[in-house]
Amino acid sequence: MDEILRIFATGISGVFIGMTMLYCSIKLTTFVTEKILLKKKEVNP
Amino acid sequence: MNTILPLFQTTGFFHLTPGMILMWLIGITLIYLAISKNYEPLLLLPIGFGIILANLPLTSLMEPNEGLLWRFYHYGIQWEIIPPLIFLGLGALTDFGVMLSRPSLLFLGAGAQAGVYLTFFVANVMGFSINESATIGIIGGADGPMTKSRKVSKLEKIFFPVVSSLVIILLIPAAAPLIAMLMLGNLFREAKVVERLTHASQNELLNIVTIFLGISIGATMNAELFLKWSVISIFVLGLFAFAISTGAGVILAKTMNLFLKDKINPLLGAAGVSAVPMAARVVHKVGQEADKKNYLLMYAMGPNVAGVIGTVIAAGIFLTLLQ
Question: Which residue of B has its CA nearest to A27?
Answer without folding.
Answer: B103
